[in-house]
Amino acid sequence: MINNSKTDRFILFINKFILLLVVLIVTIPLFYVLLGSFQQPSVLATRGLSFNPEHWTLDGYRRIFNDGSIMRGFANSMLYAGGFTVVSVGLTILAGYSLSVDGLVGKKFFMIFFLFTMFFNGGMIPTYLLVRELGLINTPWAIILPGAIGVWNIILARTYFKGLPNELKEAARIDGASDFKIFLKIILPLSKPIIFVLALYAFIGQWNAYFQAMIYLEDRSLYPLQLVLREILIQNEVQPGMIADQLARAEMQRIAEMIKYSSIVISSLPLLIMYPFFQKYFEKGVMVGSLK
Question: Which of 89, 205, 223, 288 pairs with 197 at a CA distance of 20 to 30 A?
């Protein structure tokens, strides 16, 4: 057993206190939103959270799921986020591994070219014109392809691959393995941490995105969940002077409040379910990929 000095114990106490404070800052709003999605808005506004079953309701969830566009938007978001993740991770891994190979011709040029794009880009209008000329407007590819490659992710993957032992590749070459077979049979099995980290980054980023859908999609049946929920919230917002009847305004405001909390819970569920399965790879992948 390690005998810590008073200074060490004090520092450990401060660290634990700060960690506890961070946990509370993160979990209390989540707990409030989750319980608030089941509360009657009038009770939530006047009394706060109530554990009395009489003050609980499922009206917010009923209203959301009674709208068929919700499930369609959920399926679209899964398609966009899943497709974006596969394309992004696949291209990032290939680019990162290629740039980690010492004998790659033009490696310095490609690195400078990639780094240049981190600081300078064409902007929204040229990007829209390019997507339109490629015939991607109003298709899922308009959401999946633009932005699928991130230079920072390529650098992260390249750093991870450079940290793998060269002896493994040399031994495989002696046995007659080709570069593709080395990548497929040796490199990929050893790259689970960085692959899961990149997949988590890509999925979360695309799942929470809605601006691209607003620009590139015109068909409402292609809208992702975030855009569908946004429209539902806007439809139930009460504008000043919009309704003369005060009772009707109060009812609309009550419905809007219920939908807000319920929509946050629904849109967060996939991420909350997915993260525990990725967590064991997340810390290792980030740390190893950022050492060099």
Answer: 223
